[in-house]
Amino acid sequence: MAMSWKHGERGEVRVFEDKEELSTNLVDYIADLSEAAVKERGVFAVALSGGSLIGLIGKLCEAPYNKTVDWTKWYVFWVDERVVAKNHVDSNYKLAKEGFLSKVPILPSHVTSINDTVTAEGAADDYTFAIRQLVRTRIVDVCDTCDCPKFDLVLLGMGADGHVASLFPSHPALKESDEWITFIVDSPKPPPERITFTLPVINSAANVAIVATGGSKAHAAHLAIDEKADHPSLPAGLVSPSNGSLVWFLDSEAASKLDNYKFSE
Question: Which ranges carry the Glucosamine/galactosamine-6-phosphate isomerase domain (predicted)?
């Protein structure tokens, strides 16, 4: 049982009864985008977030996807990363490697993780440089209308406060428009030092998915999806691809406060 509807500039909203159903549909969506990108461009450039998202895409490691997805064409990036050692418990790289990357045949040279031996500012600069090199060779596509990379898919989780990536409500990083990657040293959630894609890069993607589960996300989902023009936007509400598609994946609890939400019994 699932619901799906278009919501104007807020993209497509897909609501699932539970996490299991959401996970099944999310990995189908990712596999379909991978196939389409490989056919069109010969590669699939995907940017991951951390948190519960990695667990929700775990089915990609199982049949049939472990055989049908062309893993050698995947290039993996991080939408944001904590500036900690790669083997640190807070590392998004560590989370993704243990829960996903180590279980599928993605080439290690196709995985772009941060330099964990430098400062947050240095890590942001290094990550920008790495992406620029791959834009030059068109491993990562380029936006037609701006000087931004155009990832085939940006996968975002959403916090209960409406943050996406490491872009938090009312934080100056939300207004960064010149850099592809910015850094913060005062994250309201530990650890404090992080690097993150900026909104222009997220909004230049060919496809963006925002995934949220659980009742703690319901209020933020309502504000981000249903909010009126006079309401201060949450970071998730500022995600609006300029020339791409946006799909929300919500379970019934996260969707429970949406204006258009009613699961029929």
Answer: 17-248
Q: Is the pLDDT of residue 28 over 80?
A: yes
Residue with tokens 């309401």, as numbered in its chain: 231
CATH of 9-255, one of 3.30.1780.10, 3.40.50.300, 3.30.360.10, 3.40.50.1360: 3.40.50.1360
Answer whether 114's CB lies under 8 Å from 126's CB.
Answer: yes
Task: Convert the pLDDT of each residue in 172-192 to its tens digit.
Answer: 999 999 999 999 999 999 999
Q: Give domain limits for the chain.
A: 9-255
Pairing of strands 207-212, 153-157: parallel
CA–CA distance, 73 with 69 (Å, rounded to integer): 9
What gap in Å lies between CA 111 and CA 74, rounded to an integer? Answer: 9
pTM for the whole structure: 0.95
Q: How confident is the model at residue 264, as a pLDDT?
A: 45
